[in-house]
C-alpha cells in the first residue's frame, strides 16, 4: 500500500512543532535512546534491506542536514548504551526527532504487514499456539532476535534481561504494537511524547 509522501518543507515544519522536553542536561535520556534504536531494529526485522530504506527515507524526507550518510546514522543509533560499540556521546533532540519521523514514515508503509502480524499473534494466543505456527510471524521474531543478539552487548544488564527467546519475542511484539501506534493520525507527535513518559522534569 503506497502512502503519499509529505513534501520536504512539511517535514521541516513538523520537526519544529515537536517540543523539546524539559529533561536533565537537555539531551535524550538513556531509555529514549534505547527505545528509538529498538524500533529501528524492529523495522529492520520486518523488511529485508531496512537499513537501506532508512537512508532512502532520509533523502526523500529532506533530512540530509541531520543524517548525511550511513556512518552518521550508525553513530546516532550507537548512542544506545546497550550496543556492543556504543558511542559515548549524547543524542540531540534534533537527531532524535529525525529518527522518529523516519520510524513513523516506514511504519506507515508497513501498516498492512504490522496489522496482519499482530492479528495473527492474537489468533495464535486464542488457540494456545506458538508463533512458530505462522511463517511470516516466526520469520520476523527470528530476525529480530538475531539482530538484537548481534548488535547488543551481552554483558549489559539491560541486555541480559532479554537472554531468552521468549523475552526477546515479547519485546519484538511490543515494538510491533508501538509501530502500529505510529501509523495513526499524529503518529509522529504521539511517538515523540511517549518516548519521554516519566522523564520530563
Q: Sheet bearing the most strands, described?
A: none
Cα distance, first to last residue?
A: 41 Å
The total count of helices amounts to 10
Morphology: globular
CA radius of gyration is 17 Å
The percentage of residues in β strands lies in: under 5%
Q: Uncertain spans, ≥5 residues at pLDDT below 50?
A: 1-7
H/E series = HHHHHHHHHH
How many structural domains are formed by the residues? 1
Average pLDDT confidence is 89
Number of strands: 0
Share in helix: 55-70%
Secondary structure class reads: mainly alpha
Q: Would you give an account of this structure?
A:
There is one protein chain. The chain is mainly α and 201 residues long. The protein has one domain (8-14, 23-187). The protein contains ten helices and no strands. The protein has helices spanning 8-17, 30-46, 50-61, 70-77, 93-109, 111-126, 135-151, 157-160, 165-182, 187-194. The longest helix has 18 residues, at 165-182. The radius of gyration is 17 Å and the shape is globular. The protein starts with 7 loop residues before the first helix and ends in a 7-residue tail after the last helix. Mean pLDDT is 89; it is low at 1-7.
Please summarize what this structure is:
The protein is mostly helical and 201 residues long. 63% of the residues lie in helices and 0% in strands.
Secondary structure blueprint with pairings:
Blueprint: H1 8-17, H2 30-46, H3 50-61, H4 70-77, H5 93-109, H6 111-126, H7 135-151, H8 157-160, H9 165-182, H10 187-194
Helix pairs in contact: 2-5, 2-7, 2-9, 3-5, 5-10, 6-9, 7-9
Protein name: DUF3038 domain-containing protein
Organism: Leptolyngbya sp. NK1-12
Pfam families: DUF3038
Amino acid at each position: 500500500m503506497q502512502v503519499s509522501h509529505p513534501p520536504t518543507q512539511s517535514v521541516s515544519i513538523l520537526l519544529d512543532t515537536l517540543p523539546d522536553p524539559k529533561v536533565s542536561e537537555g539531551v535524550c535520556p538513556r531509555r529514549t535512546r534505547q527505545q528509538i534504536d529498538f524500533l529501528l531494529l524492529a523495522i529492520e526485522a520486518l523488511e529485508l534491506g531496512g537499513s537501506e530504506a532508512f537512508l532512502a527515507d532520509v533523502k526523500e524526507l529532506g533530512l540530509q542536514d541531520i543524517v548525511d550518510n550511513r556512518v552518521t546514522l550508525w553513530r546516532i543509533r550507537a548512542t544506545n548504551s546497550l550496543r556492543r560499540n556504543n558511542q559515548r556521546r549524547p543524542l540531540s533532540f534534533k537527531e532524535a526527532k529525525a529518527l522518529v519521523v523516519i520510524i513513523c514514515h516506514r511504519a506507515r508503509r508497513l501498516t498492512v504487514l504490522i496489522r496482519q502480524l499482530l492479528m495473527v499473534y492474537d489468533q495464535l494466543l486464542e488457540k494456545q499456539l506458538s508463533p512458530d505456527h505462522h511463517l511470516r510471524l516466526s520469520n520476523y521474531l527470528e530476525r529480530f532476535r538475531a539482530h538484537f543478539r548481534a548488535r547488543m552487548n551481552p554483558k549489559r544488564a539491560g541486555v541480559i534481561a532479554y537472554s531468552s527467546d521468549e523475552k526477546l519475542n515479547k519485546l519484538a511484539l511490543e515494538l510491533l504494537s508501538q509501530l502500529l501506534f505510529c501509523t495513526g493520525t499524529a503518529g509522529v507527535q504521539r511517538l515523540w511524547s511517549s518516548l519521554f513518559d516519566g522523564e520530563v522534569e
